[in-house]
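queue> holo job accepted (erythose-4-phosphate)
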Amino acid sequence: MQIFIDSANIEEVRRAHEWGVISGVTTNPSLIAKEGRDFIATIKEMISIVGNLPLSAEVVTMDANEMVEQGKRLASIGEGIVVKIPMNEAGLIATNQLAKAGIKTNVTLIFSSTQALLAARAGATYVSPFIGRLDDINQVGMNLIEETSSIFRTHAIETQIISASIRHTAHIIEAALVGAHIATTPFKVIQQMMKHPLTDAGIEKFMADWEESKDNLGSI
Ligand code: E4P
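queue> job finished
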């Protein structure tokens, strides 16, 4: 399973990219608004860091024709741009038209496997089922990833499943186990993934032992 970073923060994208662990970026209007900077300038700055890795940039209209226009303008910014489109009737129309124009799409705000199936059939490159927001309303979000993954596998559907709305590291492990292709992950959760108290204790002990005896050990 690949890791995308779910962020519009330049520093977070830069750091995670430097670690060599991310295979793409997703943003949404809320993440862009949180940064309070020009949308297109933010997208371009992220492209300058991640190059042609897939970078989802979301349309901000509820009209299908405008979605297609915005999608084409976004796609012209860079080769890696994936047009993120909300799951509704207009979104399906726009997804289908953009697919016919050879533009990649990520259908977002997926909360059922029937939505995922429709988005895939409309031509979506990616679908983004939201786990955390389902957990928030007392449903098991991961069931949606498992169900969608099973349907796509059974019917040889090539649309990639992005586990979205990830809240903690257990979501990552479960998403990988039930067959998500990608987990789009907040920076904080990627940081948590690399941490283990036994690793920290082990490093501390190795360094202390080395310091204590280093006069006899030569150099590297
Ligand atoms: C994914 O594409 C979305 O941007 C994101 O994962 C939403 O997460 P949230 O539910 O934490 O806002």
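queue> The longest strand covers residues 81-86.
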